[in-house]
Write a structure and sequence with these properties.
The protein has four helices and two strands, in the order H-H-E-H-E-H. It is mainly α and about 80 residues long.
């Protein structure tokens, strides 16, 4: 259901429903991070706020969306 809401809100293009499903699974599953190299539809600075809003509006916390490099840098900063 959340994947469909992401597509309906144009937070993820309808052509890329699989990307919406990845995001929805991470949110519904309570994942802390969603790591992706997909700059077009997932790790996109313009799309992330839309994605987070749809998740929030539907009662979910969106996983932190980042690239592997960003996650590695964050982990190093915490150490």
């Amino acid at each position: 259901m959340l994947a469909q809401k992401l597509v309906e809100a144009k937070a993820v293009p309808a052509k890329f429903k699989e990307d919406a499903l990845h995001i929805a699974i991470a949110a519904v599953g309570g994942m802390d991070y969603l790591v992706s190299w997909n700059f077009r539809h997932i790790t996109n600075a313009q799309m992330i706020p839309k994605i987070k809003k749809v998740c929030s509006d539907n009662g979910y916390v969106c996983a932190e969306i980042c690239t592997p490099q960003m996650l590695q840098e964050e982990v190093q900063d915490e150490a």
